[in-house]
Amino acid sequence: MDMVGYLNTAQESVRSLKETRLAALRPVGEFFDYQRVSKPRDTSEYMRRAGYNVRYFSANYAVIVALLAVYSLITNPLLLIALGFLIGGFLGISRFVPEPIEFNGKVITPQNLYTGLFIIGIPLLWIAAPLSTVFWLIGSSGCVIGAHAGFLEPPVESEYEGIETV
């Protein structure tokens, strides 16, 4: 696939993301409505609130997770470099070296280049500690979303959402 094909695919992906997930974003004023924040009486009320709010604010929570992921990449530059090296190397080899080339009398195949890329890139990625970043992202997202979802009271309309009118 050429560069134009990659751009068209990326544009279609962004468009479908915008139409599906981002269309469900709730207004900021509603998301940060501090007047509805209160301590739940018990665990069952916390779970009821969290269940409703996770469904209702799912697009907002997805944006929060994405922002935390970007923050974690910015604060771990070695991980950013390792991912850029591996992804850029993979794309560069597949784009510019589709067939074997001859260099100084030796034939270099794309498989040799991929092997070299992984021999350098995997240890670099290992040193960058991606698992600790993933676990930090899971923990921080869980704390932020769990606190918001459990302490924000659902609106009164949520009590009547399963009732049919005659």
Automatic annotation (TrEMBL):
Keyword Membrane part of the UniProt annotation: yes
Membrane topology reported for the UniProt record: Multi-pass membrane protein
InterPro entries in UniProt: Prenylated_rab_accept_PRA1
Taxonomy, superkingdom: Eukaryota
Compartments (UniProt record): Membrane
TM stretches of this protein: 56-74, 80-97, 117-138
Pfam families: PRA1
Entry GO terms, CC: Golgi apparatus; membrane
Sections of the chain in a coiled coil: none
UniProt key word Transmembrane helix: yes
Keywords linked to the UniProt accession: Membrane, Transmembrane, Transmembrane helix
Family, as annotated: Belongs to the PRA1 family.
Record protein name field: PRA1 family protein
Species this protein is from: Apiotrichum porosum
